Structure formats: structure tokens, C-alpha cells
Amino acid sequence: MIKVTFVCLGNICRSPMAELIFKDILNKQGLSNKFDVTSCATSSYEIGEPIYHLAKQTLTKHNIKGSHIAKRISKQEIESDFILVMDSSNYRDVMKLNGVDKNKVFKLCDFTDNPRDVADPWYTRDFETAYNDIVDGCTAFLQYLKTNKKI
Ligand code: 4NP
User: What is the pTM of this model?
Assistant: First the structure.
């Protein structure tokens, strides 16, 4: 079992989108039983909140189902095999946490041919670009695991 945790600032937009998109990809490839996938926040701003309505709307538009309640990163998530953050700010925040194995922390889109931050839709309201970045990152991450014989 490979434990994967997606991380962003609030855990109501990008990282829960990534969790549900990655679960959808795994499901379609019959790989769900090999993974334990979750998401969490670096901050406590939105703890207990469901997925932000515009993020949920974007997922629904692309036929991706599921729900998530925002939680802050804790020991359980820190012990994941892969901690996949959305942007450089998340990366710095996660690297400062006690007990983090720095070799397990990656920016999601660094697995792609075009390493970058996942676009932050919070101020731009552009959830479609975030969605596309996340699909690109999740697809490239899964390919990385296959190429490196981790699954
Ligand atoms: P997320 O988006 O980190 O993708 O979940 C945000 C959610 C909340 C805030 C910022 C970004 N906030 O400042 O409350």
C-alpha cells in the first residue's frame, strides 16, 4: 500500500481536488486497492469545511465524484510515502514541520515535463486551470511510479 497525501493551504480547493482526481484515475485503472489517498492543509483556516463550492462544481463538470472535510496536516499524514504539495509556499511550510522526511515531499507538477506550481484559484477564481494542472500532475506522478516500479 502506497500512502499519498495531497497538501495545500486551506484543503478546500486544490488538494481535495487532487485527492478526488487521483482517486478517479486510480479507479479507472483498477489500482485503487494499492493506494491510501488523502489530502490536508498546512493552515487551520478551513478545518471542518467541505470542498469549496466552485472547486466542487469544477469536479462535477468533469464527472468526478466524492467529498472531503478539511483537516490540518498531522503525524499520520507526515508519515505518508508521498507528500504532494501544490505550490512553493506549501513546500516551504511542509519542510518546516517536525518529523518530515524531506525526500518524500514533492510539488505535484514537478513530475510533469513542465515543472510549476498548481495555479491557485482562490483569488483568480480560475478553477479550470487548477483542474488541468492537477490532472497533468496526477497523471505524471502515476507514470513516475510505474516507470520506477513502485507499483
Ligand atoms: P486551497 O485554497 O489552499 O487550494 O484550499 C485556499 C483556501 C482558503 C484560503 C486560501 C486558499 N484562505 O485564505 O482562507
Answer: 0.98
